[in-house]
Structures are given as structure tokens and as C-alpha cells.
Design a protein that fits this description.
Pfam families: NTP_transferase. The protein has 281 residues and is of the alpha/beta class. The chain has helices at residues 14-18, 27-35, 50-60, 75-84, 112-122, 142-148, 163-166, 170-173, 220-228, 241-251, 271-277, and strands at residues 4-8, 65-70, 94-99, 130-135, 156-162, 177-181, 187-192, 210-212, 215-219, 256-261. The protein has one domain (4-280): Spore Coat Polysaccharide Biosynthesis Protein SpsA, Chain A (Alpha-Beta Complex), CATH 3.90.550. Strands 1, 2, 3, 4, 5, 6, 7, 8, 9 and 10 form a ten-stranded mixed β-sheet that branches.
Length: 281
């Protein structure tokens, strides 16, 4: 089976909150941005949040089951499901909530690799399935979700967004994670925030850069041990999903098939993005 989507929606949204001072937004939008996860910020005239449209695209990609990973303070997600769950679109999905628990010796969650592992522990069926994982604050398209569900020989897949398709210059692209891909389309490495002077070594024959935007498709059976054994990031002190991916690639250089795509990826990073999001709905 490959019809499940795991949405990571437990982040602190620090940059968004810092950007709200002086923002020209409705009071209820500001309240949501200050107090809730970014996926729940209203973005259209009907006060529907980004999460609604992410789920819409999942339905259009023939996803059947969605797991939303949240923090323990997740009542707004239940409120969202109470408000929108009966809409015809969302009745086509089975939606589950997973909670990323914070270890007793920490004051914040242990990172994205830990989030996915905890989701798999709470819903063990994922350990026997293929499933897609994505951020909750990006509006990934149904096209991308559908491509990740296609049959392949590799156990895992990752979307390779073209730099030009994202519409960013090299300076901006260097703030993302660049992918090094072999001639057979397998992932060799993910390089986080490379120096702009290093980008040329990762361009393909057309001069394109492949950018990871944190959307993957995993074989639960093969990825779980890498999530569990993922080391703490040396600076952020968290278990991060790209590090688990790197571990899997080191063990098996053909573990990840890179699927190219050239399209925009709307996201909610600052208050300015809230106003722009309506353009992509």
C-alpha cells in the first residue's frame, strides 16, 4: 500500500511569530499565527487554513489516510476537524492525530526524525507500508504527491525541485538543501545550506540545481531503524529527518530515487506569505 500521508505540524513557527509585529492582517489571522501551528492560519476568504488545501491536494492525489503529527497542545487541530471534517472533500480521508511527546530531560521536541518515528510507533501499520512525509507549512501539489506514489525499484523516494522552477536566485537557493544526484537518478547526498560558491558542482547538464523541500516517500519497513538510530544534530541538538536519509543512503547508495519536478512551492514562513497564499489556491 502507498496511500498514506504523514504531515509534520509540530513546529514552533518562530519566524512567523517574529514577523507579525505591524502586519496588516485581520485580528483572527494574527491570533492564529501567534498561537497555532502555521498550517492552521486562515488563508482564504472563507477562513480555511493551509491545512485544508494540503488535504485537498492529498485527496486529488488519491491519498486515503492522513496522519498529522502535532505537539501535545493540539486542541486547534481537533477544532479544525470539528469545523471542516464534515465537508465533502475531507470525508474522503481518514485522518488520525499523532502526538510528538517531549522527552523528560528536554524542554522542546526531539526533531523531525523523532516525530516520524513516534508517529510510526503510535500507528504501527506504517511500519509495513509505503507512505509520504511532508511539512505542514508548505502547499505541496497533488502532482507531487501523485508522483511519490508511483511504482519504483528503490525503497524510498524524494522530490527533486528544480531551482529555476522554485523561482529563486542562487543566493536564495543556497539557503535550502541542495541534492547531489548520480546519473541513474539516485540520491548521493543532501547538502544543507551550501556556500553559494559551491553550487556549480551540483548542477546537472542543463545547469539546474535539485533542491530538497522536505517531501519524501518511505518504505516504513526500511526507514524505521534509521529514524530510531538517527544521531543528534551537532548544532540544533535534534534528530533531523535529512540525517536519517543520509544514514540510509550510506548503507544503500540506491536507497532513494530522486523524482524531478519544476513548479512553485508556496509556503508560510512570514506574515507576508499569508497575504500571497491566496494566489495559489
Amino acid at each position: 500500500m502507498n496511500n498514506s500521508l504523514v504531515i509534520m505540524a509540530g513546529g514552533a513557527s518562530s519566524r512567523m511569530k517574529r514577523s507579525l509585529e505591524g502586519a496588516n492582517l485581520d485580528a483572527d489571522v494574527i491570533y492564529a499565527a501567534q498561537n497555532w501551528h502555521k498550517s492552521l492560519i486562515p488563508i482564504d476568504d472563507h477562513k480555511r487554513p493551509l491545512l485544508f488545501y494540503l488535504l485537498r491536494n492529498a485527496v486529488n492525489a488519491r491519498i486515503q489516510k492522513v496522519y498529522i503529527i502535532t505537539s501535545a497542545e493540539n486542541q486547534p487541530f481537533y477544532k479544525f476537524l470539528d469545523s471542516h471534517g464534515s465537508e465533502e472533500l475531507l470525508t474522503k480521508l481518514q485522518i488520525e492525530i499523532a502526538i510528538q511527546k517531549v522527552p523528560e530531560d528536554r524542554d522542546k521536541p526531539l526533531g523531525t526524525a523523532d516525530a516520524v518515528q513516534q508517529c510510526m510507533d503510535q500507528y504501527p501499520e506504517l511500519k509495513q507500508q509505503y507512505f509520504t512525509v511532508c511539512n505542514g507549512d508548505n502547499l505541496y501539489s497533488s502532482n507531487v504527491m501523485g508522483k511519490l506514489r508511483m511504482e519504483r525499484t528503490a525503497p524510498h523516494a524524494i522530490m527533486a525541485y528544480s531551482g529555476s522552477g522554485l523561482g529563486f536566485d542562487d543566493e536564495r537557493l543556497s539557503k535550502f538543501a541542495v541534492m547531489d544526484i548520480d546519473p541513474n537518478g539516485n540520491l548521493l547526498q543532501i547538502i544543507e545550506k551550501p556556500d553559494v560558491t559551491e553550487l556549480n558542482q551540483f548542477r546537472d547538464e542543463h545547469g539546474e540545481l535539485a533542491i530538497s523541500m522536505n517531501i519524501f516517500n518511505f518504505s516504513g519497513e526500511h526507514i524505521y531503524s534509521f529514524l530510531m538510530n538517527c544521531p543528534l544534530h551537532s548544532i540544533r541538538n535534534e534528530k533531523e529527518l535529512p540525517d536519517a536519509v543520509r544514514m540510509a543512503v550510506r548503507e544503500n547508495p540506491s536507497a532513494f530515487s530522486c523524482i524531478p519536478v519544476s513548479e512553485l512551492l508556496p509556503d508560510l514562513t512570514t506574515s507576508d506569505d499569508i497575504k500571497k497564499m491566496n494566489l495559489y489556491l
